[in-house]
Design brief:
The protein has 621 residues and is of the alpha+beta class. 16% of the residues lie in helices and 31% in strands. The strands form ten sheets. The protein has a 13-stranded mixed sheet with strand order 17-14-13-22-21-23-24-31-30-29-26-27-32. Strands 15, 16, 18, 19 and 20 form a five-stranded antiparallel sheet that branches. A four-stranded mixed sheet has the order 8-7-6-9, with helices on one face. The radius of gyration is 30 Å and the shape is elongated.
Length: 621
């Protein structure tokens, strides 16, 4: 028999690569297991025949085709025969091994294969432990070796997988850090699922409480605490009916991840949430982690940057997964401010599902303050979205898709600066992460355009605002709303802003905007008794000007009605729509940017119910 799994006979065979799922099923069928990286090293040391790795320059997908599998097998055989190697001997240097590893459950790369080895004649492996390929990928260099799943440990027969999951014995077989959560590419029957729907709330000055749905399969939870969201302490075991963590320090951020446990084993780690013990019962903020996408760099702990910034701004928060919001464990209406972390969440995992859209729409209709940041929101909901998605992003998030990145060029533009607006001022230009500042490389930041009286307040430094914005905000009534709500949207993840003091400063201004008790669209102290459409200022202008107008209180003639403010050229052609939404009584102002228009005379026309007004303005480019 050959050294790696092969098809055929002793006289006519081919070492055949295969994916980890197929290999795992065969291993289970034969009562065997795949090696760890430590065992691959040990096998090489004890190999009778050691060959130099034979590799080929990649050309298209040729390395993944059967013809290349056969060619590689023939080249190995020529080497083996010339070296005097015999079939059945341990032979090294011919394949990378598909291995069992802690990286099988890497949350940033789910459903991937882990490979290692292909030792050179100097004893060093070409391939370090690597899980970059999806689990359906195979090429000629991959090989499958099986080990008997029963081993003798101190004269006692012990199952290979049980050794790997034991907190002490795993070191016999593995040189990775910690015991393996799942020594298999297949989910093990009976083991609880990864906790998805849960949250952390303040429970007085010295404790936190975890809220989650009941799960009959879960017998207990392992609770892991951290002061930095990266390095976690040994677990605390808690019963599902008493998930209270006591003995904590008041006004200190604790980062928390959990595992569900039963007799069959324990789940992989959950994502990281956070809480802050406090005697203050005024919980202003709910931080919702909705970044579930298994993308490169997603460490599932970006709540660190959000939590620390809220605390730096004297805010008490609770936190939840977006699943916990969908499941009704948390109600957004209990929190004046909701912060949604969306990172690079996109079409596959959905930025906002239909049920989340309904929850958020109701929250905004009831006067909620929503802060959302992520780099794929408009791509998912507008460019790729359904009619329901488009209605939500246009009318509730108040924006539309403009481009997938500045100038539609990926991985190039990372600078942001403030745009003149009436709401947020005095913020220096800043940058977000290109992959070298500890979070993720935001290659595709959303470029968006404000809709329905929203205002662009941030731009990408290299991009003109006519092409789109990096951030928008809105203050007013939402469709079918009864109270004034507010939204602030960033086209890039908030957690990727650096340095930390810049994040804190921006969040401070957003909180001030949310907490303003004055209708920002209604700053005039004069009593409004009639419609008023003011002359734009400045006039003439180049390229921006401000248009102010007033809508009087409701009477039998004046009510909350549809409002439009449109721009026309001298020939009567519509060239821009500045407002197109329901508006209530108040003083309003809109900034018109005419960068893409030629010099000349233009008209702006306001319609609200029975009122129609228009004025002339002059653009001098």
């Amino acid at each position: 028999m050959p050294d790696y799994l092969a098809i055929g006979s002793n006289e006519d065979f081919c070492r055949i690569p295969m994916g980890p799922i197929t290999a795992q099923k065969l291993a289970d069928l034969f009562g065997a297991a795949m090696p760890t990286s430590k065992l691959v090293d040990n096998i090489y040391v004890n190999c009778v025949t050691k060959l130099a790795p034979q590799f080929y320059t990649p050309v298209g997908n040729e390395n993944e085709l059967v013809a290349k599998f056969v060619l590689h097998n023939n080249d190995i055989e020529e080497q083996r025969i010339s070296k005097g190697g015999e079939l059945g001997q341990l032979t090294g240097g011919i394949k990378k091994d598909v291995i069992l590893s802690n990286k099988i459950v890497d949350p940033t790369r789910t459903h991937h294969v882990v490979i290692y080895g292909w030792h050179q004649l100097n004893g060093l492996p070409i391939q370090p432990i690597y899980n970059g390929h999806i689990d359906t990928y195979v090429d000629y260099s991959h090989g499958i070796r099986f080990i008997n799943s029963e081993l003798l440990v101190d004269s006692v027969v012990v199952n290979y997988k049980n050794i790997l999951t034991d907190g002490v014995l795993y070191k016999i077989l593995s040189n990775e850090t910690g015991a393996m959560e799942r020594p298999s590419y297949l989910k093990i029957d009976g083991i609880p699922e990864t906790p998805k729907s849960f949250g952390v709330i303040t429970n007085g000055g010295e404790s936190l409480k975890i809220l989650t749905n009941e799960d009959a399969k879960v017998e207990s939870y392992k609770i892991f605490l951290s002061n930095d969201g990266v390095n976690f302490n040994s677990p605390i075991m808690l019963s599902p009916d008493s998930l209270i963590i006591s003995g904590l320090n008041e006004n200190t951020i604790y980062y928390i991840r959990i595992k569900a446990v039963n007799q069959a084993g324990e789940s992989p780690y959950s994502e990281v949430l956070a809480g802050i013990p406090s005697s203050n019962t005024n919980f202003n903020v709910l931080i919702v982690n909705g970044f579930d996408r298994a993308s490169a760099g997603n460490t599932y702990n970006f709540i660190r940057q959000h939590a620390s910034s809220f605390v730096a701004n004297q805010q008490i928060f609770n936190s939840a997964t977006n699943e916990a919001v969908k499941d009704g464990i948390f109600s957004l209406n209990n929190y004046p401010i909701t912060d949604y972390i969306l990172g690079e969440e996109s079409t596959v995992d959905e930025t906002f599902s239909t049920s989340e859209q309904n929850i958020i729409s109701a929250y905004l209709q009831n006067g909620g303050n929503l802060f959302v940041s992520g780099s794929e929101i408009s791509w998912d909901l507008d460019y790729k979205g359904s009619s329901t998605d488009k209605n939500f992003i246009w009318n509730y998030l108040k924006m539309q898709y403009a481009a997938d990145a500045p100038f539609n060029v990926a991985g190039t533009y990372y600078g942001v600066q403030l745009v003149e607006n009436n709401f947020i001022q005095n913020l220096s230009p800043f940058n977000f992460d290109n992959g070298t500042h500890g979070t993720i490389n935001v290659k595709y930041p959303d470029v968006v355009k404000p809709l329905n009286s929203a205002t662009g307040f941030l731009k990408y430094s290299a991009l003109d605002t006519q092409s789109g914005f990096a951030g928008i905000l809105f203050n007013g009534l939402f469709p079918n709303g009864t109270l004034i709500g507010k939204v602030v949207i960033l086209g890039f993840p908030f957690e990727t802003i650096y340095p930390e003091n810049t994040r804190n400063e921006l969040l401070s201004k957003i909180i001030d905007y949310f907490n303003s008790t004055v209708d920002i669209n209604n700053q005039d102290d004069n009593i409004i008794t009639e419609y008023r459409l003011e002359q734009n200022y400045p006039n003439p202008f180049n390229p921006t000007t401000t248009i102010k107008y007033s809508i009087p209180p409701s009477t039998e003639h004046y009510s909350v009605q549809h409002t439009t403010l449109k721009i026309y050229d001298i020939l009567g052609r519509e060239v821009a729509i500045l407002v197109n939404e329901l508006q209530q009584s108040g003083n309003y102002q809109v900034i018109f940017d005419a960068s893409n228009l030629a010099s000349g005379i233009y008209f702006y026309k306001l319609i609200h119910g029975i009122f129609v007004g228009s004025k002339k303005m002059i653009l001098l480019q």
